Amino acid sequence: MRFFAFIVAALSLFMAGVMAVDIQKSVLITYPPETPDSVLAQAKKAIEEGGGTITHEYKLIKGFAAKLGEKVLDQVSALGKEYNALIEEDQVVSAL
User: Fold this and answer.
1) Among 15, 19, 46, 58, which residue is least crowded by beta carbons within 10 Å?
2) Sign of dihedral through CA atoms 27, 51, 47, 72?
3) Rounded mean pLDDT, 86-95
4) pTM above threshold 0.90
5) CA distance readout (Å), 2 to 26, 68, 75
6) Among candidates 31, 70, 27, 79, which has minimal Cα distance to 51?
7) Where are the domains of the chain?
8) For residue 66, what pLDDT band results from cuts at 50, 70 and 90?
9) Quick check: 79 and 39 in contact, CB under 8 A?
10) CA-to-CA distance for 96 and 84, rounded, in angstroms?
């Protein structure tokens, strides 16, 4: 009986840890051309400090691709409101 109670307790702790994990999303974040570079730097810093990663930095447009959690996504979205940041989920694009 004690073994069963131990298994149930261990599974409960494991599930609590799994549920606490912030799901990572792949997103593209772009800004209008007149956006200061400091705004992009601030967003990238918030992503990295929040456990996300910058996967690509664009040269022709002001923006980057990243993998980040929901909490960090909300934070970056709030940082970009003044400059109309466009945040969209990364996806495969194909020609017809």
Assistant:
1) 19
2) positive
3) 88
4) no
5) 44, 41, 45
6) 70
7) 22-89
8) very high
9) yes
10) 31
What is the pLDDT, as a whole number, of residue 48? Answer: 96
> How does the average pLDDT of the chain come out, rounded?
85
Residue 10 identity: A
Amino acid at 96: L
DSSP secondary structure string for all residues of 47-61: HHHTT-EEEEE-SSS
Q: Which residues contact 88 (CB under 8 A, 6 or more apart)?
A: 27, 28
Amino acid found at 9: A
Whether the pLDDT of residue 88 is over 60: the answer is yes
